[in-house]
Amino acid sequence: MEIVRTVFQNAESRDGSGVGPKLVIVLDMGREMGMNTADIPGLAHKMEMALPGIFPDEGSPYLHTCGGQSTGIEVHSFRDEIKQGTDIPHLLEHVLLHLLSRRTNHCSAYCGQRATDLDRGITTHYYLVVDCPSRIEGIVAADLAYNLVTSWIDNSALGIDPAAYLDGIRATLEPMIGFMPNNAHL
Ligand SMILES: [Zn+2]
C-alpha cells in the first residue's frame, strides 16, 4: 500500500453537513489489495494499545460509526466491522477520524474506488476523503495513520525517527506551499 498523493479541496460531506474542506488521500493498495482486517491477528488490541479511545463508548463526542443514512446500512460500530472483516482503506479511514476529530469534534469520512479508474484498468486505487480544516494537521495525521496501519499489517513495532518523520512531512508539504527553508516551523 502506498499513498500516491494527497490533495486538499472543498467538497460536499456525505453526512449532509454541507460543503467543507476535505483531505483526499489517493492510495495504491499494491499487494494489500483485497486484504481484510480479519487477516490481521489481534488488530483491535493493537489499535487500542496504539490509540487509546479508538473505540469510543456510545454517547462519546468522538464516536465514529459505520453505515448510516447515506449508505442504506444500519449504524454500527467500527469494532464490529473489524471483527467481521473490512478493507484496509476503511481501517485507515477510522484511524484518521480518530486523529482528526480530537480537535474539530466533528469529522466524517468515506472511502472507495472510482468507476473512471476501473474503466481504465486501474484496479488498485482507493480514494479516502475526510473532513480536514488544517492542511498541516491533515498531512501529519495521514502520515501517522499510514505508518500505524502498515505496522499493524506487518506486525512490526512502530518506531518514529523524528527527523525522518519531519523530512517526510516537509516533502509532502513543499509541492503544496512552495519551498520551505530548513529552519521553517511547520
Ligand atoms: Zn466506517
Q: Can you count the helices?
A: 6
Tell me the series of helices and strands, N- to C-terminal: EEHEEHHEHEHH
Overall pLDDT level: 87
Please state the structural category: alpha+beta
Roughly how much helix do the residues carry, as a percent range?
25-40%
Q: Quote the distance from N terminus to C terminus.
A: 26 Å
The neighbouring-strand order within the major sheet is 1-2-6-5
The tally of structural domains comes to 1
Describe the global form: globular
Low-confidence stretches: none
Characterize the largest beta sheet: strand count, sense, and whether it forms a barrel.
Answer: 4 strands, antiparallel
Number of DSSP E strands: 6
Radius of gyration: 16 Å
Question: What compounds sit in this structure?
Answer: zinc ion
Strand % is: 15-25%
Describe this protein's structure:
- The protein has 186 residues and is α+β, with helices and mostly antiparallel strands.
- It has one domain (2-177).
- Helices cover 39% and strands 22% of the residues.
- The strands form 2 sheets. The protein has a 4-stranded antiparallel β-sheet, covered by helices on one side.
- The longest helix is centred in the C-terminal third of the chain and has 20 residues, at 135-154.
- The mean pLDDT is 87.
- The site of zinc ion (ZN) has 5 residues, from helix 2 and helix 3.
Q: Which key terms come to mind for this protein?
A:
186 residues, alpha+beta, 4-stranded antiparallel sheet, two-stranded antiparallel sheet, 6 strands, 22% strand, binds zinc ion
